[in-house]
Design a protein that fits this description.
- The protein is an alpha/beta fold.
- Helix content is about 35%, strand content about 20%.
- It starts with a strand and ends with a helix.
Length: about 850
């Protein structure tokens, strides 16, 4: 039987013991063996702290975000084999989708957050700068850097893929290396995904390790700077947290434990209302998805006392209709528990619940293509606690399977009180259309819940459901739920980051944070900052504008254009008791006038105004006042660009407007999209001619079969096709791939060297030469380049077919030629 290998200190290592046998939850057949005996855990942790930390922490947040995306894409291409393994854990296709593609989706989400919101540096400035001296020569701020240690991540058996990836998404993005320790049960699926992560070659050495089996004494070796993330039972979590190595050192500990989550049906949601039907559907889904093996599943069903009978009947019918059995069958809606050991444990808890509450529904389902003897199947079970304020067992005991308990309440006060008797939950839901009931109940139960999910007819179509944690929202809960927090967008990174206060002069803070601070030295040059590409802009680049004297006519005209007739701008007789001496210029006029002063009218790399932040007006500006503007590059943010957008970054500019007395009247931060410098040659005729001068008949090709003249004639043919002489008869790229190929023209990735043009002969031979020699070919090529430029000036709306990219317009043809020329000029060493 295959023994799962562990991946530690950069090697695949097999345990030396007998290990733990792992079984197919559906058939009972053995699948694999997990074994960690003989592993050197101390060495593994040290390897992560040294090699892994050095490699990960030196990367920027932006680059780590790109790393997550590449890993997720690599795994997504191989998803079929993960589904095949997931079915062996008892998971249906829907269960598997949540686990597998939900895990990939978390990587994609965090990659997107990194590209939009995190800096292209290995540290992260947190919060605003604080002015802590009267004259602003002494400032303070905070930076976040990767915690110098390794993260040990202990995951539960119910989500072998998502459980691993949701923790790795934040630790890897934060720059902290991790050791993944999945539950042995289902670890063969975790192992398969992890193997491909390593095989992708995307992750730097030491970034991740895998311990596939029993944890042994791995936690004995954690030390200051390390972290432990645990998902599992609260009992086990508390034991781990109290270990001397954790409690006695500065080891960060995050626990996400199972909890007795509830769902509350609103007082008004009687049978026949959309909310009643939604409630039955949601509870049934949460009882049967993953066979109830979810830390977010509904364990307590809180229902108005007058609707208990209606809910019990409707829910029983819904559960009766749930097909249970082999996940490979299309009929199956609920699979099995993960194994016989878990089955016995759930049965034990069911018997405890029976001691105080009534079992009112015990499904007698016939299994689809499976049997109860070999598989770990359990039918849904519904209990009734008729006195939930007296009988506490429903609030204390969790059966981690398809088991839930009905309980009545009288009013919103009681509903919230019952919800809180779970002593801390990951999630509670309210299904109601009564906003007052929802609001009152939410406020009262919030202190004992990590998430509150509200469902009704208004959001049902787009709702993600009671049991689905989302990457952008916090996953965790107080009390019994562990008191931990995972994900929550960028907040999830803070657990892995060290926050450090930085104090110093404006110039020192600028040097450390790479963000311009008011009072720091400005850098002036003859070149207008808006004429610089994103790569050329440096923090501190500044412009001092000419002055502009504001007139009464400016104030009147802006009032008429903007329709802003606020009395302070238009009625001098109404200013008594105000802060104004006379009619004042509009604040937005000052900002607009400032823009008029600092923008560059000449076309350049600045693509668009992207936004405005932190705009404040400090002093009034009256007719006769003269304003001058200081524009300074404050911060640069790398930006991921998709589709047909020019590769660009965001530059934040500090705008300081002063009056003739050198008093600051307005400060704002504007954001601009600034194009990145293209790595491809311009279609400038003189530049192209200059490069071609270095090409001779004997110039060797660095790759490919083309001779120099064949290359020139190949480029000329592409030029001719781009203005329809001749018109290409067809595109060889399948329609379903065409949009992706056309989008690729806009990015800055070079054309592949080994691409075989589909319009060339299949035998690899090249077309015969059409010009008598190289010089004639060059002359003809340059004539047609000039013709291309003129053609699209005269016909800017023209479109012509390309053999590979389909029908292209002027902009796309220009992009194609730039890439194409660059590709072949590099082929012959001309660039």
């Amino acid at each position: 039987m295959e023994k799962l290998k562990n991946y530690i200190y950069g090697e695949w290592v097999e345990g030396t013991g007998n290990g733990v046998p792992l079984y197919n939850a559906v058939t009972g057949e053995q699948v694999a063996v997990s074994d960690t005996e003989g592993l050197n855990f101390e060495q593994a942790l040290d390897y992560g702290r040294t090699v892994g930390y050095k490699n990960l922490s030196s990367m920027t947040f932006y680059d780590r975000g790109e790393m997550l995306k590449k890993v997720a894409l690599y795994l997504l291409e191989r998803k079929k084999k993960y589904y095949d393994l997931s079915y062996k854990t008892g998971a249906t296709h829907v269960d598997s989708w949540v686990d597998i593609e939900g895990g990939f989706g978390t990587f994609f989400t965090y990659s997107g957050l990194a590209k939009r919101m995190l800096p292209n540096t290995s540290f992260w400035v947190d919060g605003d700068t604080q002015k802590i001296s009267a004259n602003g020569t002494f400032l303070g701020t905070h930076i976040l850097t990767p915690s110098e240690g390794v993260s040990v991540q202990i995951n539960a058996y119910n989500f072998p893929v998502w459980g691993m990836l949701e923790k790795l998404s934040t630790s890897l993005l934060a720059g902290v290396p991790s050791i993944v320790k999945p539950s042995p049960f289902g670890s063969y699926l975790t192992n398969a995904v992890f193997q491909d992560m390593i095989e992708s070659g995307v992750l730097p050495e030491g970034a991740v390790q895998l311990v596939c089996g029993e944890p042994g004494n791995i936690l004995d070796y954690v030390q200051d700077g390390d972290s432990v993330l645990f998902t599992g039972s609260a009992h086990t979590g508390r034991k781990l947290k109290s270990m001397p190595s954790i409690a006695g050192n500065a080891v960060r500990f995050n626990m996400e434990a199972d909890s007795l989550n509830c769902s509350i049906l609103g007082l008004e949601a009687k049978p026949g209302t959309p909310e009643f039907d939604l409630f039955i559907k949601e509870v049934r889904n949460e009882m049967t998805t993953k066979a109830g093996q979810k830390c977010t599943a509904i364990r307590r069903i809180i229902v108005p006392e007058h609707l208990i009978g209606d809910v019990q009947n409707a829910l029983s019918k819904a559960l009766d209709q749930t097909k249970i059995g082999n996940p490979l069958s299309r009929e199956t809606k609920m699979g099995s528990l993960v194994g016989r050991q878990q089955y016995e444990e759930v049965l034990r808890k069911v018997n405890i619940l029976k001691s105080e509450t009534e079992l009112v529904y015990d499904g007698k389902h016939e299994l689809v293509d499976a049997d109860y003897e070999n598989g770990a199947f359990m039918s849904p079970k519904l209990f009734l606690n008729d006195k939930p304020f007296e009988k506490n067992i429903s609030h204390d005991v969790e059966a981690f399977g398809p088991v839930s308990t009905l309980m009545p309440y009288k009013d919103a006060e009681e509903a919230a009180a019952l919800a809180k008797r779970g002593k801390g939950s990951l999630v509670g839901s309210i299904i109601s259309h009564d906003e007052n009931f929802i609001a009152e109940t939410s406020w009262k139960m919030a202190s004992q819940h990590g998430r509150i999910f509200v469902l009704n007819r208004d959001n049902a179509k787009e709702s993600t459901g009671h049991g689905s944690p989302l990457p952008t929202l916090m996953h965790g809960g107080p009390g019994r739920a562990g008191g931990g927090e995972e994900m929550g967008g960028l907040s999830g990174l803070h657990f892995f980051l060290q926050k450090t206060a930085i104090q110093g002069s404006p110039d020192v803070l600028k040097a450390i944070t790479k963000i311009y601070q008011q009072g720091a030295e400005k850098k002036f040059s003859d070149k207008h900052p808006f004429q610089k590409y994103f790569e050329e802009v440096e923090v501190g680049d500044s412009l001092e504008t000419a002055g502009r004297t504001v007139t009464d006519a400016d104030i009147v005209n802006f009032s008429n254009v903007s329709w802003d007739h606020f009395y302070a701008h238009t009625d001098a007789t109404s200013l008594s008791g105000t802060i104004f001496d006379k009619t004042v210029a509009h604040g937005y006029f000052i900002l607009s006038a400032a823009a008029g002063l600092f923008v560059s009218g000449k076309k350049g790399p600045v693509i668009a105004n992207y936004g405005l932040e932190d705009c404040s007006f400090f002093k009034p500006v009256y007719a006769g006042d003269t304003i001058t503007v200081y524009l300074t590059a404050k911060e640069k943010i790398n930006r991921g660009v998709k589709g047909r957008n020019i590769p660009s970054g965001v530059v934040k500019w500090l705008v300081e407007v002063v009056n003739q007395r050198d008093e600051v009247v307005c400060v704002a931060t504007i954001l601009t999209l600034v194009a990145k410098q293209s790595p491809f040659i311009d279609l400038n005729v003189k530049n192209v001619q200059k490069m071609l001068n270095g090409l001779t008949e004997s110039t060797p090709a660095l790759w490919g079969k083309m001779s120099p003249q064949q290359m020139i004639e190949h480029l000329e043919q592409a030029l001719l096709v781009s203005f329809g002489e001749p018109e290409a008869e067809k595109c060889f790229t399948p329609e379903e791939h065409l949009e992706k190929w056309q989008d690729s023209l806009y990015n800055h990735r070079a054309m592949p060297k080994e691409f075989t043009a589909p319009f060339l002969p299949q035998d690899g031979s090249l077309p015969e030469l059409t010009h008598k020699n190289m010089e004639a070919a060059k002359l003809s090529f340059m004539d047609n380049l000039k013709k291309f430029v003129i053609y699209y000036k005269e016909n800017p709306q023209a479109e012509h077919m390309n053999y590979v990219f389909g029908k292209l317009n002027k902009e796309m043809w220009e992009l194609m030629h730039k890439k194409h020329f660059t590709h072949h000029f590099q082929q012959f060493g001309l660039i």
